[in-house]
Protein backbone atom coordinates (compact mmCIF):
# COMPACT_ATOMS: atom_id res chain seq x y z
CA UNK A 1 0.00 0.00 0.00
CA UNK A 2 2.77 2.44 0.91
CA UNK A 3 4.66 1.62 -2.30
CA UNK A 4 1.49 2.16 -4.37
CA UNK A 5 0.85 5.51 -2.69
CA UNK A 6 4.43 6.57 -3.36
CA UNK A 7 4.11 5.59 -7.03
CA UNK A 8 0.92 7.64 -7.35
CA UNK A 9 2.67 10.64 -5.77
CA UNK A 10 5.51 10.37 -8.28
CA UNK A 11 3.16 10.02 -11.24
CA UNK A 12 1.04 12.97 -10.09
CA UNK A 13 4.11 15.16 -9.56
CA UNK A 14 5.44 14.34 -13.04
CA UNK A 15 2.07 15.08 -14.62
CA UNK A 16 1.90 18.45 -12.86
CA UNK A 17 5.52 19.29 -13.57
CA UNK A 18 6.45 19.47 -9.91
CA UNK A 19 9.76 18.46 -8.32
CA UNK A 20 9.57 14.98 -6.81
CA UNK A 21 10.46 15.05 -3.15
CA UNK A 22 12.76 12.23 -2.11
CA UNK A 23 11.35 9.63 0.26
CA UNK A 24 13.19 10.14 3.56
CA UNK A 25 12.63 6.48 4.46
CA UNK A 26 14.91 5.50 1.58
CA UNK A 27 17.70 7.85 2.66
CA UNK A 28 18.52 6.38 6.05
CA UNK A 29 19.22 2.84 7.23
CA UNK A 30 17.99 1.14 10.38
CA UNK A 31 21.53 1.14 11.77
CA UNK A 32 21.96 4.88 11.26
CA UNK A 33 18.55 5.55 12.72
CA UNK A 34 19.37 3.39 15.75
CA UNK A 35 22.59 5.34 16.38
CA UNK A 36 20.72 8.64 16.11
CA UNK A 37 17.95 7.47 18.45
CA UNK A 38 20.32 6.10 21.11
CA UNK A 39 22.15 9.42 21.09
CA UNK A 40 19.03 11.42 22.02
CA UNK A 41 19.36 12.86 25.53
CA UNK A 42 15.81 11.84 26.46
CA UNK A 43 16.61 8.24 25.53
CA UNK A 44 20.01 8.20 27.22
CA UNK A 45 18.47 9.33 30.49
CA UNK A 46 15.93 6.51 30.64
CA UNK A 47 16.54 3.89 33.31
CA UNK A 48 15.84 1.26 30.66
CA UNK A 49 18.50 2.60 28.26
CA UNK A 50 20.63 -0.56 28.35
CA UNK A 51 17.56 -2.67 27.55
CA UNK A 52 16.54 -0.32 24.71
CA UNK A 53 20.07 -0.47 23.32
CA UNK A 54 20.09 -4.28 23.44
CA UNK A 55 16.66 -4.62 21.80
CA UNK A 56 17.49 -2.28 18.93
CA UNK A 57 20.83 -3.95 18.23
CA UNK A 58 19.06 -7.32 18.10
CA UNK A 59 16.48 -5.90 15.68
CA UNK A 60 19.05 -4.36 13.33
CA UNK A 61 21.19 -7.51 13.40
CA UNK A 62 18.17 -9.74 12.76
CA UNK A 63 16.40 -7.63 10.14
CA UNK A 64 19.51 -6.22 8.50
CA UNK A 65 20.92 -2.71 8.18
CA UNK A 66 18.48 -1.92 5.40
CA UNK A 67 16.95 1.39 4.31
CA UNK A 68 13.87 2.12 6.42
CA UNK A 69 11.77 2.09 3.25
CA UNK A 70 12.43 -1.66 2.96
CA UNK A 71 11.14 -2.41 6.47
CA UNK A 72 7.76 -3.93 5.69
CA UNK A 73 5.43 -5.86 7.97
CA UNK A 74 6.29 -9.02 6.03
CA UNK A 75 9.98 -8.50 6.68
CA UNK A 76 9.31 -7.86 10.34
CA UNK A 77 7.25 -11.04 10.56
CA UNK A 78 10.22 -13.04 9.21
CA UNK A 79 12.36 -11.50 11.94
CA UNK A 80 9.85 -12.47 14.64
CA UNK A 81 9.62 -16.06 13.41
CA UNK A 82 13.40 -16.41 13.36
CA UNK A 83 13.72 -14.81 16.79
CA UNK A 84 11.32 -17.34 18.30
CA UNK A 85 13.59 -20.18 17.17
CA UNK A 86 16.63 -18.74 18.97
CA UNK A 87 17.86 -19.87 22.37
CA UNK A 88 18.28 -17.28 25.09
CA UNK A 89 21.95 -17.20 26.12
CA UNK A 90 21.09 -16.11 29.66
CA UNK A 91 18.16 -18.48 30.29
CA UNK A 92 19.14 -21.41 28.08
CA UNK A 93 15.64 -21.80 26.64
CA UNK A 94 13.78 -20.54 23.52
CA UNK A 95 13.16 -16.81 23.32
CA UNK A 96 9.64 -16.05 24.56
CA UNK A 97 6.95 -14.06 22.67
CA UNK A 98 7.09 -11.39 25.39
CA UNK A 99 10.79 -10.86 24.62
CA UNK A 100 10.12 -10.53 20.89
CA UNK A 101 7.28 -8.11 21.62
CA UNK A 102 9.66 -5.99 23.67
CA UNK A 103 12.18 -5.94 20.80
CA UNK A 104 9.54 -4.84 18.30
CA UNK A 105 8.03 -2.29 20.71
CA UNK A 106 11.41 -0.58 21.03
CA UNK A 107 11.88 -0.63 17.25
CA UNK A 108 8.45 0.91 16.76
CA UNK A 109 9.15 3.58 19.40
CA UNK A 110 12.35 4.48 17.56
CA UNK A 111 10.51 4.83 14.25
CA UNK A 112 7.73 6.92 15.81
CA UNK A 113 10.32 9.27 17.32
CA UNK A 114 12.06 9.50 13.95
CA UNK A 115 8.77 10.58 12.35
CA UNK A 116 8.32 13.22 15.08
CA UNK A 117 11.81 14.57 14.31
CA UNK A 118 11.22 14.43 10.53
CA UNK A 119 14.06 11.94 10.10
CA UNK A 120 11.70 9.67 8.14
CA UNK A 121 8.28 10.16 6.53
CA UNK A 122 6.30 7.22 7.90
CA UNK A 123 6.43 4.24 10.24
CA UNK A 124 5.39 1.29 8.10
CA UNK A 125 5.12 -1.15 11.03
CA UNK A 126 3.05 1.07 13.28
CA UNK A 127 -0.01 -1.17 13.22
CA UNK A 128 1.58 -4.59 13.62
CA UNK A 129 -0.03 -6.62 16.40
CA UNK A 130 1.84 -8.06 19.36
CA UNK A 131 2.41 -11.79 19.57
CA UNK A 132 0.14 -13.52 22.05
CA UNK A 133 1.96 -14.00 25.33
CA UNK A 134 1.65 -16.78 27.86
CA UNK A 135 3.44 -15.57 30.96
CA UNK A 136 1.99 -18.14 33.32
CA UNK A 137 4.76 -19.86 35.26
CA UNK A 138 4.25 -22.98 37.34
CA UNK A 139 7.60 -22.89 39.12
CA UNK A 140 7.03 -22.27 42.83
CA UNK A 141 9.79 -22.55 45.42
CA UNK A 142 9.44 -24.81 48.38
CA UNK A 143 10.19 -23.23 51.77
CA UNK A 144 13.52 -25.07 51.86
CA UNK A 145 14.47 -23.79 48.37
CA UNK A 146 13.60 -20.24 49.33
CA UNK A 147 15.76 -20.40 52.46
CA UNK A 148 18.69 -21.66 50.36
CA UNK A 149 18.15 -18.82 47.89
CA UNK A 150 17.85 -16.23 50.66
CA UNK A 151 21.05 -17.39 52.34
CA UNK A 152 22.86 -17.36 48.99
CA UNK A 153 21.91 -13.74 48.28
CA UNK A 154 24.27 -10.88 49.14
CA UNK A 155 23.02 -8.39 51.75
CA UNK A 156 22.00 -5.94 49.03
CA UNK A 157 19.48 -8.45 47.63
CA UNK A 158 18.09 -10.10 50.76
CA UNK A 159 15.44 -7.45 51.39
CA UNK A 160 14.26 -7.44 47.77
CA UNK A 161 13.98 -11.22 47.70
CA UNK A 162 12.23 -11.34 51.07
CA UNK A 163 9.55 -8.84 50.05
CA UNK A 164 9.06 -10.44 46.62
CA UNK A 165 8.54 -13.85 48.25
CA UNK A 166 6.12 -12.83 50.99
CA UNK A 167 4.26 -9.88 49.44
CA UNK A 168 2.34 -9.53 46.13
CA UNK A 169 4.60 -6.84 44.71
CA UNK A 170 6.36 -6.48 41.36
CA UNK A 171 10.07 -5.89 41.06
CA UNK A 172 9.70 -2.20 40.10
CA UNK A 173 7.25 -1.64 42.96
CA UNK A 174 9.78 -3.02 45.44
CA UNK A 175 12.79 -1.19 44.02
CA UNK A 176 10.92 2.13 44.13
CA UNK A 177 9.39 1.56 47.57
CA UNK A 178 9.56 4.66 49.78
CA UNK A 179 9.30 5.05 53.53
CA UNK A 180 6.31 7.32 53.02
CA UNK A 181 4.42 4.33 51.58
CA UNK A 182 5.10 2.14 54.62
CA UNK A 183 3.04 2.27 57.82
CA UNK A 184 4.73 -0.08 60.28
CA UNK A 185 2.39 0.93 63.09
CA UNK A 186 -0.75 -0.08 61.17
CA UNK A 187 1.08 -2.86 59.33
CA UNK A 188 0.60 -2.13 55.63
CA UNK A 189 2.13 -0.66 52.48
CA UNK A 190 0.01 1.76 50.45
CA UNK A 191 0.81 2.14 46.74
CA UNK A 192 -0.80 4.92 44.70
CA UNK A 193 -2.15 4.41 41.20
CA UNK A 194 0.99 5.95 39.73
CA UNK A 195 3.03 3.14 41.28
CA UNK A 196 1.21 0.10 39.93
CA UNK A 197 1.19 -1.52 36.51
CA UNK A 198 -2.60 -1.31 36.10
CA UNK A 199 -2.71 2.26 37.50
CA UNK A 200 -4.92 1.19 40.40
CA UNK A 201 -3.77 1.92 43.93
CA UNK A 202 -3.78 -0.86 46.50
CA UNK A 203 -3.03 -1.59 50.16
CA UNK A 204 -0.66 -4.50 50.95
CA UNK A 205 -0.76 -5.94 54.49
CA UNK A 206 2.57 -6.63 56.17
CA UNK A 207 1.36 -10.03 57.31
CA UNK A 208 4.68 -11.76 57.91
CA UNK A 209 6.94 -10.92 60.87
CA UNK A 210 10.10 -11.36 58.75
CA UNK A 211 9.07 -8.41 56.59
CA UNK A 212 8.38 -6.20 59.59
CA UNK A 213 11.65 -7.28 61.21
CA UNK A 214 13.57 -6.49 58.03
CA UNK A 215 11.99 -3.03 57.62
CA UNK A 216 12.59 -2.17 61.27
CA UNK A 217 16.26 -3.09 60.87
CA UNK A 218 16.76 -0.75 57.89
CA UNK A 219 18.15 2.76 58.47
CA UNK A 220 15.29 5.20 58.00
CA UNK A 221 16.28 8.79 57.06
CA UNK A 222 14.46 11.58 58.88
CA UNK A 223 13.05 12.89 55.62
CA UNK A 224 12.13 9.48 54.23
CA UNK A 225 13.27 8.49 50.78
CA UNK A 226 13.72 5.15 49.04
CA UNK A 227 13.99 2.01 51.16
CA UNK A 228 16.57 0.44 48.83
CA UNK A 229 18.60 3.57 48.14
CA UNK A 230 18.68 6.12 45.36
CA UNK A 231 20.22 3.76 42.79
CA UNK A 232 17.19 1.44 42.68
CA UNK A 233 18.71 -0.92 40.11
CA UNK A 234 18.22 -4.66 40.22
CA UNK A 235 21.50 -6.59 40.23
CA UNK A 236 20.45 -9.42 37.92
CA UNK A 237 23.95 -10.88 37.76
CA UNK A 238 24.15 -11.22 41.56
CA UNK A 239 20.63 -12.68 41.69
CA UNK A 240 21.36 -15.30 39.02
CA UNK A 241 24.55 -16.20 40.87
CA UNK A 242 22.55 -16.72 44.07
CA UNK A 243 19.99 -18.88 42.24
CA UNK A 244 22.80 -21.04 40.88
CA UNK A 245 24.49 -21.29 44.27
CA UNK A 246 21.19 -22.42 45.78
CA UNK A 247 20.97 -25.23 43.22
CA UNK A 248 17.75 -23.88 41.68
CA UNK A 249 17.12 -24.22 37.94
CA UNK A 250 15.07 -21.93 35.64
CA UNK A 251 13.84 -19.48 38.25
CA UNK A 252 13.69 -15.73 37.72
CA UNK A 253 12.90 -12.92 40.14
CA UNK A 254 9.33 -12.57 38.88
CA UNK A 255 8.66 -16.20 39.86
CA UNK A 256 8.93 -15.20 43.52
CA UNK A 257 5.44 -13.67 43.14
CA UNK A 258 3.38 -16.80 43.74
Summarize the structure.
The chain is mainly alpha-helical. The chain is 47% helix and 4% strand.
SSE blueprint:
Elements (H helix, E strand, L loop, with lengths): L1 H15 L13 H9 L2 H4 L4 H15 L9 H12 L12 H20 L26 H10 L2 H12 L4 H5 L6 E2 L4 E4 L10 E4 L3 H9 L18 H10 L13
C-alpha Rg (nearest Å): 24 Å
CATH arch. level architecture of the largest domain: Orthogonal Bundle
**Strands, count:** 3
* CATH class category label of the largest domain: Mainly Alpha
Helix/strand structural class? mainly alpha
Give the N-to-C terminal Cα separation. 47 Å
* CATH fold node name of the largest domain: hpI Integrase, Chain A
Explain what this protein looks like in three dimensions.
- With 258 residues, the chain is mainly alpha-helical.
- The protein has 2 domains: 21-116, DNA polymerase, domain 1; 143-256, Orthogonal Bundle (hpI Integrase, Chain A).
- It has helices at residues 2-16, 30-38, 41-44, 49-63, 73-84, 97-116, 143-152, 155-166, 171-175, 209-217, 236-245, and strands at 182-183, 188-191, 202-205.
- The chain has a 3-stranded antiparallel beta sheet, with no helix packed on it.
- The longest helix has 20 residues, at 97-116.
- The protein is elongated, with a radius of gyration of 24 Å.
- It comes from marine metagenome.
- Residues 136-258 form the Tyr recombinase domain.
- Residues 28-115 form the Core-binding (CB) domain.
Amino acid sequence: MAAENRLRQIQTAKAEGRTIRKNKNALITLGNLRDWYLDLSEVKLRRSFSSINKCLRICVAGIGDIPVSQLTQSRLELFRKKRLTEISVRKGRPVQPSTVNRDVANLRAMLNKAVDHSKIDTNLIGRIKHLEENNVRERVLTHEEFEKLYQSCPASLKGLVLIAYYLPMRQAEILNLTWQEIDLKMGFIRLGGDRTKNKTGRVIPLHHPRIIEFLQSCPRPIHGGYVFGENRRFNRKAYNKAVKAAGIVDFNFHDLRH
